[in-house]
Write a structure and sequence with these properties.
Blueprint lengths: L5 H9 L9 H42 L7 H5 L1
Length: 78
């Protein structure tokens, strides 16, 4: 996946004189569609993280039942 660079994005956004104008209603629809897509992607990512966390917790619980001590990252820092 290509890396988005902040300075390239800012430069592209600042080129107003080269910008092709689109009707206001079309631009509003474009941004609303983009936000809707990103919102759904964010929700899916959150759901995936919750599933991974749930499976990790189940493995950790079983290991503790088997007598294995699990060190978390917060315990390692202390």
């Amino acid at each position: 996946m290509a890396e988005t660079k902040k300075d390239n994005l800012e430069r592209a956004l600042s080129k107003k004189e080269e910008k092709q104008e689109m009707p206001k209603e079309m631009e509003i629809g474009f941004h609303q569609g983009a936000l809707n897509t990103l919102f759904n992607e964010r929700n899916e990512l959150i759901r995936m993280v919750q599933q991974v966390e749930s499976v990790m917790q189940a493995h950790m619980k079983r290991l503790e039942e088997l007598g294995v001590k699990i060190k978390t990252s917060s315990e390692k820092r202390e």
